[in-house]
Amino acid sequence: HTGSFVPARRALLGPLDQIFTRIGAGDDLASGRSTFLVEMSEAAYILHHATPASLVLVDEIGRGTSTFDGLALAHAIARHLLEKNRCACLFATHYFELTHLEREVAGVANVHLDAVEHRDRIVFLHALEEGAASRSYGLQVAALAGIPRPVLRWARELLARLEQQPGLRPAQDDLFQREWKPLPEEEQEENLRKPEPHPAMVRLAALEPDRLTPREALETLYALVAQVQSNPPPEG
Question: Where is the DNA mismatch repair proteins mutS family domain (predicted)?
């Protein structure tokens, strides 16, 4: 250890063999890697190398893809760090669904940074409090950053509509309320070996031939051929 300053009245730190971080976002244009691919590559390295004597710092993993893909990956990565790597981990996330891990896995504790909201403004207190945050402050932070008022007003209206949709939040919360049991390794391997459908096949399956004019059908056929030629399906 370097003997760095610890911002606390007292701290008990055991020896660490490695410190891993998955923080920040940025693509790698030179090697053709997207932000999400960079993020997953770093996460994979951590999952393969962290030990019970390691410290892992993770910030907002899974945000570079669709909501459910990202949420599922974040949950699975957190479980692996807890149950397989068994390392000390600080896992920052806006996925409220992950707060259920405190009830499911021993040694997990939810904490949040406190803030005070007054009208449309927010003040960050930078005080660590026990428990999960009761809400997020995305609109208030956007206002603080200078987003124009018409944009904020429209976003607020959309948020109100989304929150009124029946079953929206419960459906997401229920994803992880059942006891989590990993699939047998044979079934996991079989799922990974299943090939993804070719984009041309997906497009073809969605077509309604009776609704196409002869010209549209011909144009669609040429487009499908071009798509297959530019991205040939794997052999076998």
Answer: 54-70
Picking from 44, 38, 8, 3, the residue whose alpha carbon sits closest to that of residue 24 is 38
CA–CA dist 31, 60 (Å, integer): 23
Q: Hey, what CATH topology would domain 14-109 get?
A: Rossmann fold (3.40.50)
Q: For the segment 88-143, what is each residue's pLDDT rounded down to a tens digit?
A: 999 999 888 899 999 988 899 999 988 887 766 788 888 889 999 888 888 888 88
% of the chain beyond a pLDDT of 70: 80
Phi-psi region of 60 (alpha: psi -120 to 50; beta: other; left: phi over 0): left
Q: In terms of pTM, does the model score above 0.70?
A: no
Backbone angles phi, psi at 31, to 5 degrees: -100, 5
Q: Which of 36-45, 121-130, 134-143, 190-199 has the lowest mean pLDDT?
A: 190-199
pLDDT, residue 72, reads: 92
Contact 155, 54 (CB under 8 A): no
Question: Taking the CB of residue 12, how many other CB atoms lie within 10 A of it?
Answer: 5
Report the DSSP pairing between strands 111-118 and 121-130: antiparallel
Q: For residues 99 and 71, what is the distance between their CA atoms, to the nearest angstrom?
A: 12
| Rounded Cα–Cα distance for residues 197 and 200 (Å) | 8
CA distance 229 to 83: 45
The whole-angstrom separation of Cα 181 and Cα 178 is 9
Torsion of CA 10, 12, 16, 20, to 10 degrees: -50
Locate the domains of the chain by residue range.
14-109, 199-230
